[in-house]
Specification:
This protein has 300 residues and is of the alpha/beta class. Helix content is 50%, strand content 15%. The chain has a single domain, classed as Rossmann fold (3-Layer(aba) Sandwich), CATH 3.40.50.
């Protein structure tokens, strides 16, 4: 197994421009991990419901939900994470419950910068101590992911010794250890997602120390026609008004050609790259399609 394979580290983060199919890739890897006898956990941040829709389950919350046989998911809830933290550090139960239940405290933390992200770290620390392997974290889009991964440096000099400082230092150590964690990128072979991916990769190389894993290029189109037939198609279109079917075929080939140009731009990124098929699972999860995605990932 390649060192950059998502299963080679226990903790994998995934990010990419919105709409590139990142959550589908995460779900497919979780399903395949279970098929291999692992105990996968998908971690979704915030109050998104993407995994809920993908796996066709009623609700995924802070508590673990078995979304299919042997595949579990959780959605990090900052209120619950805050309550867990308070109860861990305030030993008097009644007082801890009063603090955790304080509406004014919740409003304060909701307004304070980066508190939600720190609480997410607390949740990940808890998950690390449990049985899950792999842990697949479906991060938000690229801007938020950069901020989340940069938390330890953001708080340098601002947070003194204490439990939060230890948490941040521990997270920084985890990110630096490629045997334990890595970051995977997901994109599409289209101009805007590719441009954002190129810029993200450059920032990651210069600003962050996390090991970069796999670049997943989702929904890669096959050629509309064999290369040997290209000249005949061009000639048929050039000799007169194209039949509707020929025009559609040429338009499809043009989209494929543009995707190939974008793939050439991505070739400058020094990451293991996997091209996934055009077909994507629809809601609810299509296990056969997920299997094809996982197989494509493993073959490359």
């Amino acid at each position: 197994m390649s060192p950059s394979h998502p299963y080679s580290s226990r903790l994998s983060f995934f990010t990419g421009k919105g709409g590139v199919g990142k959550s589908t890739v995460v779900a497919s890897l979780a399903v395949e991990a279970r098929r291999r006898g692992r105990t996968p956990l998908v971690v979704e941040l915030g109050h998104r419901a993407t995994m809920q829709a993908l796996f066709d389950v009623e609700h995924i919350g802070h508590d673990f939900v078995e979304v299919m046989d042997g595949v579990f998911a959780t959605n990090v809830d900052s209120d619950r994470a805050l309550a867990d933290y308070v109860r861990q550090h305030v030993r008097v139960g009644a007082l801890a419950n009063r603090i955790a239940g304080s509406e004014s405290l919740r409003r304060f933390f909701a307004a304070a910068p980066a508190v939600t992200e720190v609480l997410t770290l607390l949740r990940l620390e808890q998950l690390w101590s449990e049985r899950w392997d792999p842990i697949l974290v479906d991060l938000d889009a690229t801007g938020h992911a950069l901020m989340f991964l940069g938390l330890p440096s953001v708080f340098d000099g601002l947070v003194p010794e204490g439990p939060i400082r230890r948490l941040l230092d521990g997270f920084a150590s985890l990110l630096r250890d490629g045997d334990r964690s890595q970051l995977h990128l997901v994109t599409l072979p289209a101009q805007l997602p590719v441009q954002e991916t190129l810029e993200l990769h450059e920032r990651l190389k210069t600003e962050h120390s996390i090991r970069l894993g796999t670049l997943f290029v989702n929904r890669v189109r096959p050629p509309a026609i064999p290369e040997s037939a290209r000249a005949a198609l061009d000639a048929a279109v050039a000799t007169g008004p194209a039949e509707e079917d020929l025009a559609l075929l040429r338009a499809e080939q043009a989209r494929h050609d543009d995707a190939q140009r974008q793939l050439a731009r991505l070739a400058t990124i020094d990451m293991r790259q996997v091209r996934l098929p055009l077909e994507s699972p629809v809601e609810p999860v299509d296990l056969a399609a997920l299997g094809r995605i996982a197989a494509a990932e493993d073959d490359q």
